[in-house]
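agent> Task received from the user: take the single chain below, predict its 3D structure, and emit structure tokens. No templates, no multimer pairing.
agent> Plan: (1) validate residues, (2) run structure prediction, (3) serialize to tokens, (4) report one or two observations.
agent> Step 1 OK, no nonstandard residues flagged.
tool_call: predict_structure(input=
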Amino acid sequence: MKHFFHRSEESRQTFLLLHGTGGRETDLLPIAGQVDPSLSVLGLRGEIIENGQFRYFARTKDGKMDEASLLEKTPEILDFLEKAAAEYEVESFHLIGYSNGANMATSLLLHRPDLFRSAMLFHPSHPLRAFEDSHLEGMRILMTAGAVDQVTLPGEAFQLKAHLTRLGADVSMHITDHGHELMKSEFKEATKWWKNRNDRERE
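)
tool_result: status=success, residues=203
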């Protein structure tokens, strides 16, 4: 699996970066660097190619989420992460996902919450709505959405928030006045949320 890894000299905790449609494994480095430059970073490139654009799972012919593809690719990525954790001596993963990457991050989290300590989901949809076999107690999650997002309607994020909260997660939500694009306010909110998360862990 195409990826890059940056080893921090300060921490074996690792940000796992999952890009949006058409992105690359380095796209979310600015967020990781602003939120906490002390962590290691692992970025993965999606292996599905649609119209020359990389994704983590396919869409149906009418452009909707292909959950069969999502469920097919999820264990492949989880298997890679287990091997990468051993090879790179990762202590724990913290998810950062945008759009298609946020949806894959959600699936990874639902299937193997033991591999992750937190998640930042930027503009997710609501995948795997019927998936209830997961225990997310103590999992802190930040979600963002755009009020006028026409790619992922903000209602999807609110439904996902309710779903993850029902499974025990501590979910914070940030809404921008914009669309599907990532805004600087989301970077700032993620940095504030991360600091608050760390402060709470030290209590």
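agent> Step 4: summary for the user.
Helices lie at 29-35, 67-87, 100-111, 154-166, 184-202.
agent> Done.
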